[in-house]
Amino acid sequence: MQCTYALPQDLPTYTSTLKVGLFYENGTVVEEDSMKAAEYYSRSANLSYAGAQHNLAIFYSKGRGVEKDEEKAYQLYSRAAAMGHSGSQNNLGRLLSPSLAAHSIPPLPQSRNDV
Fold it and tell me: Where would I find the H helices in the chain?
């Protein structure tokens, strides 16, 4: 049985919104829905949570659940990297060094399950 999951409007904590995004991204508890995952990652990212900014950046870089926007992905990776998120630091480095990425660095992951 699939269900829809939503947070109460008065509970906008970054960890809970990130977890709901993960539910939708992975099809855990609810039916997989990339657009809803992106929506919840965006809510959490707007609360300055680096893990959600990273996940949302991946969605923008791949066009998953949102329109592909490499500039937006760059901005989100930059914000998360500035807060010390190592995955974003790594992916930001890949974006800024395309010659390295083409020769020796594996491609960006499809998704990141940061909790």
Answer: 14-26, 34-46, 50-62, 70-82, 86-96, 98-103
